[in-house]
Amino acid sequence: MDVITIERKVLQKNDEIASANRALFKKNGLFTINIVSSPGSGKTSLVEKTIEHLSGKLKISVIEGDVQTDLDAKRVSNYNVPVVQIITNGACHLEANLVKDALENIELKGRDLLIIENVGNLVCPAGYDLGEDIKVAVMSVTEGDDKPLKYPALFSASQYLLINKIDLLAYTNFNMERARHNALTINPKLKIIVTSCTNGTGIKEWVESILKDKFL
Amino acid sequence: MDVITIERKVLQKNDEIASANRALFKKNGLFTINIVSSPGSGKTSLVEKTIEHLSGKLKISVIEGDVQTDLDAKRVSNYNVPVVQIITNGACHLEANLVKDALENIELKGRDLLIIENVGNLVCPAGYDLGEDIKVAVMSVTEGDDKPLKYPALFSASQYLLINKIDLLAYTNFNMERARHNALTINPKLKIIVTSCTNGTGIKEWVESILKDKFL
């Protein structure tokens, strides 16, 4: 019972810090996205494509979350945007206080969009608000169409679902209709966009949705 | 500091129960495999292929771990083996006590091989011994060759790495040499087998390794 009590305290503390983060983002006019998926679903590639398409319109900063290595931050820094790497040292998700600490190392004034790439994990990040405006779940077609049913918490907490790696669809037994049905069963309000960072499918629709969310 | 102390106690308790599970497996002559990967790397398909190839030689039982649903247990039960589904209700990994409870609902006497399919998660299951003889990490080529570096704990704790979905290699930028190098950098003793449940690559090598591990 002790563990549960402390877990609740941890979540409550997390929510308080997330609220403070959110207020700071709002004060600076910063729209913030928290991207969550399994390892290898293509989060970093989606971050790269988002920067490519929006960096002429918006000033973008990035926070990368990883258990180990700064490989992703190095990839993203090639796009000439400010990027901070959080290495969790084994922890399986980002928490609001880690983001708060990262914010001390990144310019907020005059920035428009903050992209936070969470640790690759379809389970634990779902429960931790970071102060973001929207949570974006990513699943790739190679993972199978049953994932929303098997990992409902993330799909339930997200505003967007990007169904990624659609260029590989023909080589899998992924059923798009069933995937959509499964996702919308868990969360009927989920905005679903089908994407590929390899052939560019859906990237325009995705970045235009972000622009609308920020400015409309 | 409280959380860390309790986390240590949780792990210590887990290790005690895992040792008891291990003694029970040994007493019953049961060889036990704990399969861990990201969601959608093909664990369940590998379990199915393993049963197909070994059910004539070994009496197999299966424990399925999932956050939600009994979809995997239903799939595996088509292969006429005893299967128990553990639904963790949000918890991101199996623990030894969950396996202990499952063992009360599955025949151990006269069985040869117990396959435990863990929750889809590349981070948290790494730290929890279930009492298994071997831990098997699975990564699919669609996930990228950097995964051993980014999620080292699992690769470090495993005896096997199955690099799965090799049939999709041509459609990805996965570099096999780099993947092997990354994995062996983390764990030089890792036995790496390249597999595909779609075209059958490596399945024979995998099941023969299991037979050797059990009987040699």
Quick overview:
Two copies of one chain form a homodimer. With 216 residues, chain A is an alpha/beta fold. Chain A is built from eight helices and seven strands, in the order H-E-H-E-H-E-H-E-E-H-H-E-H-E-H.
Can you offer a commentary on this structure?
Two copies of one chain form a homodimer. Chain A is α/β, with parallel strands linked by helices and 216 residues long. The first copy, chain A, contains eight helices and seven strands. Chain A has helices at 2-27, 43-54, 71-77, 96-103, 147-150, 152-157, 176-186, 203-215; strands spanning 31-37, 60-66, 83-87, 113-117, 134-140, 160-164, 191-194. In chain A, helix 1 (2-27) runs parallel beside helix 4 (96-103) and helix 2 crosses helix 8 (203-215). Chain A is globular and about 45 Å long. Chain A binds chain B through residues 2-3, 6, 10, 38-41, 66-69, 71, 90, 92, 119-124, 139-140, 142-144, 146-147, 149-153, 165, 167-168, 171-172, and chain B through 2-3, 6, 10, 38-41, 66-69, 71, 90, 92, 119-124, 139-140, 142-144, 146-147, 149-153, 165, 167-168, 171-172.
